[in-house]
Design a protein that fits this description.
Layout: H1 2-37, H2 42-52, H3 54-75, H4 78-103, H5 118-125, H6 127-150, H7 156-177, H8 185-191, H9 201-216, H10 231-247, E1 257-263, E2 275-277, H11 283-289, E3 293-298, H12 306-315, H13 329-332, H14 343-349, E4 353-358, H15 367-374, E5 378-381, H16 399-410, E6 417-422, E7 441-443, H17 447-471, E8 478-484, H18 493-498, E9 506-513, E10 526-528, H19 533-541, H20 547-558, E11 561-563, E12 566-569, E13 572-574, H21 581-598
Parallel strand pairs: 1-6, 1-8, 3-10, 4-5, 4-6
Antiparallel strand pairs: 2-7, 3-9, 8-9, 11-12, 12-13
Helix pairs in contact: 1-2, 1-3, 1-4, 1-9, 2-3, 3-4, 3-7, 3-9, 4-6, 5-6, 10-20, 11-17, 16-17, 19-20, 20-21
């Protein structure tokens, strides 16, 4: 009897301690995630948790407790489940800090799909931290798996409790995954005090906490249905612009080659206040730009987001029109779609040979699947390229090599070619790529990286100039759209403070014609968005416009560039979009068509609007 009392006494002490320990673990882990999100400021963390947003902090702890209980019940071990939980939270917080540091935006749920991109992750965080994280994760998973195997020896009573907790937590996690459902109780609990800021995910996470922001970015419809969406309205829009487009017939005797070049992180550092250099690294670029249609492009992101800029350029759909949670259409939207109209599908319908080239692996942003869905005939990656030369210590295939790959394709003269090239030479990191640099900057912070970056874009500019010279020997008319996707994440807080947000989101772009016949070749200070590239090129080169491109051409005349929080109209930048009646009608037509394709009934796809 005494022995039983001793056991009961130990259990009465043990179980409360376990519960307190788990609550403490969840509490500390939530503070840690907030700490990483707030750029390692303990002051902001404690104000968020205990003064400003206590209710949202508690809700975040509730979600984390469900995750912890799920892992413990899955492992059949409180200790190993807690250890794996701690490691997962540690890596998640570190990743969030890194992304905030390099791109000034937080980790999204969809970013977790990048976890298998070992090569890129190693290059971004460094070899030693990467190997260390990999080893810790591997050891944790090994012991976690062993615990699951050993859990079959647990008593029947413990097994019942374990599987009950597992079923309940799985059900709760599935329910939580529908956070953006208007009837979701957790969302309603957050909505009591949360001020969601959809136009700025950085501020969204800041105001609602890491957990609130993370939940907000779980799965959601690409676009909410507009009030005036109907088959009748879509058919009216498609007929109106298609009729206008058909009045202007193509003036071309032969279909031209079309080359899209999205140059990784290509921009002019000296566009920024606080950055100067001993000479111009973009001299070769401007030798071309000053002879043709060129200017500044508005990038959706700073320091990253390449796939989103690519999505806009190929589809002519705008990220600004999406719900803010639709952070990466390449991974979140296109794989679910049956058909996605783009310049690729348009060229295919006109008997073009379509090729995508990316001097890296095929899995980044699901490009292999996305390119297949868009209709590319072939995808040439680092594994299938003939030209793979690099420059000095740069680990990435050079732009010069990539352009040689394009020129090889253009030798095929039977069919016109559409080639979409996404370069890698100027990808981060920007230190120790080159043994010598011809450029020395004067800047407020991070001089070494900026100098190396200048050398990078100088090589890129030189390669582009040589490419355009080589194109003059191509018999078929060849049109090129070249642009930088975003600025590199190398600029110090002092430099960012001296420049407005627009400057941190503008890169160089140009359109080139090897026969020099573009109608806008005298314009060198144009302002544009990437979703306008294809219709602008068609308009300026005399190619036959589609109804869709006609609509965009008319919209561009009214609103030349826009992204969330950045609107260029009447030669002025504003944070909100104020439109007159004509502009509002054009913008609404565009929004209805984009909704119809990405979230609606696809009425427009049954017409000739995109053909």
């Amino acid at each position: 009897m005494k022995e039983k009392l001793k056991i009961l006494k130990k259990q009465s002490i043990k179980y409360p301690l376990i519960i307190i320990g788990m609550i403490l673990l969840v509490f500390i882990s939530n503070l840690y995630l907030q700490w990483c999100q707030n750029e390692l400021s303990m002051e902001l963390v404690f104000k968020f948790a205990f003064s400003w947003h206590t209710e949202k902090f508690v809700l975040g702890c509730f979600v984390l407790m469900i995750v912890l209980l799920f892992l413990c019940s899955l492992a059949g071990s409180l200790v190993l489940g807690s250890v794996l939980y701690g490691i997962m939270i540690g890596i998640l917080g570190f990743a969030d800090y890194q992304k905030m540091f390099y791109r000034t935006e937080p980790i999204y749920p969809d970013d977790l799909k990048m976890i298998t991109e070992f090569g890129l992750l190693r290059e971004m965080i460094g070899t030693v931290p990467f190997i260390l994280i990999l080893l810790i994760a591997a050891v944790a998973l090994f012991f976690f798996g062993r615990a699951m195997y050993s859990s079959r020896r647990l008593s029947k009573k413990i097994q019942i409790i374990r599987f009950s907790v597992l079923v309940v937590t799985v059900g709760l996690l599935i329910y939580i995954s529908n956070f953006n459902n208007s009837n979701n109780l957790l969302r309603k609990a957050y909505d009591r005090t949360a001020l969601w800021i959809p136009y700025s995910q950085k501020m969204n996470y800041y105001n609602t906490g890491f957990m609130g922001g993370f939940l907000y970015n779980l799965k959601v419809e690409a676009m909410d249905e507009p009030e005036n969406y109907s088959q009748e309205n879509i058919e009216e829009i498609t007929h109106k612009y298609t009729k206008t487009a058909q009045k202007e017939k193509s003036s071309l005797e032969e279909q031209p080659n079309i080359i899209f070049v999205m140059s990784e992180s290509f921009s002019n550092p000296q566009n920024l206040t606080g950055v100067t250099a001993n000479s111009d690294p973009l001299k070769d670029y401007y030798d071309i730009a000053k002879t043709t249609y060129s200017g500044k492009m508005l990038s959706q992101n700073y320091g990253g987001g390449t796939a989103n800029i690519e999505f806009e350029a190929l589809t002519s759909f705008s990220m600004e029109l999406f719900n803010p949670q639709m952070t990466t259409p390449y991974t979140m939207l296109i794989p679910k779609m049956i058909e996605i109209p783009s310049i690729v599908s348009l060229m295919k319908n006109q008997e073009y040979q379509t090729t995508a080239i990316h001097p890296y692996n095929t899995s980044m942003y699901k490009r292999k699947d996305v390119y297949n869905k868009m209709g590319f005939d072939q995808f040439i990656s680092e594994d299938t390229m003939k030209h793979t030369e690099t420059i000095q210590n740069n680990p990435y295939i050079s732009d010069e090599s990539a352009y040689k790959e394009v020129l090889d394709i253009l030798q095929e003269d039977k069919n016109p070619q559409f080639v979409h090239l996404v370069t890698m030479q100027t990808h981060m990191p920007y230190s120790e790529k080159y043994t010598t640099s011809n450029y020395s900057s004067r800047s407020q912070g991070n001089k070494k990286a900026i100098d190396s970056y200048m050398q990078d874009v100088a090589y890129s500019s030189e390669a582009l100039k040589q490419f355009t010279i080589a194109l003059k020997d191509v018999k078929r008319r060849t049109l090129v759209v070249f642009w930088g996707d975003h600025l590199p994440s190398i600029y110090s807080d002092e430099i960012k403070a001296e420049n407005d947000e627009v400057k941190m989101h503008q890169t160089e772009f140009l359109m080139y014609d090897n026969q020099g016949k573009l109608t806008g070749k005298t314009t060198h200070d144009a302002v544009s968005s990437p979703f306008y590239f294809a219709p602008t090129l068609f308009d300026q080169s005399g190619m036959q416009m589609t109804g869709f491109y006609q609509m965009l051409t008319e919209l561009e005349k009214q609103v030349p560039a826009f992204e969330k929080g950045f609107y260029y109209k009447d030669k002025k930048w504003t944070k909100t979009l104020a439109l007159n009646k004509t502009q509002e009608e054009l913008y609404e037509d565009y929004r209805l068509i984009q909704y119809d394709v990405v979230s609606g009934k696809n009425y427009s796809l049954k017409t000739d609007f995109f053909k």
